[in-house]
Amino acid sequence: MKYVQVGSQPLPAIAVGCMGLNKLSAKECDAFLSAAADAGLYYFDHADIYGGGECEQVFGEAATRLLLPREKLVLQSKCGIVPGVMFDFSKQHILKAVEGSLRRLRTDYLDILLLHRPDALAEPEEVAAAFDELEQSGKVRAFGVSNMHPYQIEVLKQCVKQPLVADQLQFSPAHAGMLSCGFEVNMLTDAGICRDGYIFDYCRLHGMALQAWSPFRYGFFEGVFLGDKKFQKLNDVLENIGQTYGVDPSAVVAAWILRHPAKTQVVTGTVNIRHLLAIAAGADVTLTREEWYKIYLAAGHTLP
Ligand SMILES: NC(=O)c1ccc[n+]([C@@H]2O[C@H](COP(=O)([O-])OP(=O)(O)OC[C@H]3O[C@@H](n4cnc5c(N)ncnc54)[C@H](OP(=O)(O)O)[C@@H]3O)[C@@H](O)[C@H]2O)c1
Questions:
Q1: Strand partners, 152
Q2: What is the C-alpha separation between 6 and 274, in angstroms, rounded?
Q3: pTM above the 0.70 mark?
Q4: Nearest atom in ligand 1 to 248's CA
Q5: Of 25, 101, 116, 254, which sits 20 to 30 A from 51 (CA to CA)?
Q6: What are the chain's domains?
Q7: In ligand 1, which atom is closest to the CA atom of 250?
Q8: Can you tell me whether residue 166 is helix, strand or coil?
């Protein structure tokens, strides 16, 4: 397993996303979490809104049943979205959201709290006050963001004094605009348009981990590209490279994300044990430069 330095701690490069955990029965959930923990996948990504809170709830119940030692788990959650209504980075909302996550996860503290999606009405002073209170009370040990561009992070950093250790963003071979704009600098192409404020470079400059959510999807939850005929060329290349290393195509995707020299991590979404373990094998594969570019091109991108 590859480890990535996230703030002060080295964490597994593969984080287990828990957005779909509420699809499992209690028995299936127990089996999934024990298999993950046995494989060294002890870093779990949550959000207060996943399944309306149900995902954190079923995780907390399963971790209690399984007697998973808290100190051996890394629990990350997110807050700041009121689904379909608004984004809310007010102090009151952040504190209340964390209380809810702690209660559902049955824990006294979160290892990492991320602000889920930028709130246009955010007051950095309020975010800072919330973070200070959460840090002082020991309820949150480290802080980060999600779906933010560099200037939004800089605005927060004017008041927030804790290091922001990670930015979680959508990233996959089929959703790689964050890299394409870096290839097509100063070109009049669509791919040359920067939609993220050059966040990859920003994260590298500031030592932030870049956590890739939806590593196997394309579009905004349009579908999974693995095995999809629309992505035949990509799937053929993934299959081919997978055979070279004796791993599943999904592992090659993980290896592709982790091959970037930024501090990249993969946040999986599967709730299938076989799929999870297959993906995790990608953390032990280092792709060559040629293989990495072949995958980028096979996903339909071009190079100038
Ligand atoms: N920060 C944010 O705004 C944000 C947004 C969305 C998600 N997230 C986080 O990112 C995590 C991942 O998101 P996601 O679920 O969209 O990501 P994903 O891992 O790209 O997609 C999951 C889908 O891929 C399928 N899959 C995985 N391996 C497969 C394989 N080998 N063959 C066929 N299908 C396979 C899964 O099906 P099976 O279950 O059948 O394997 C599942 O339907 C979430 O759990 C959440 O923690 C964060």
A1: none
A2: 27
A3: yes
A4: 31
A5: 254
A6: 3-298 (3.20.20.100)
A7: 31
A8: strand
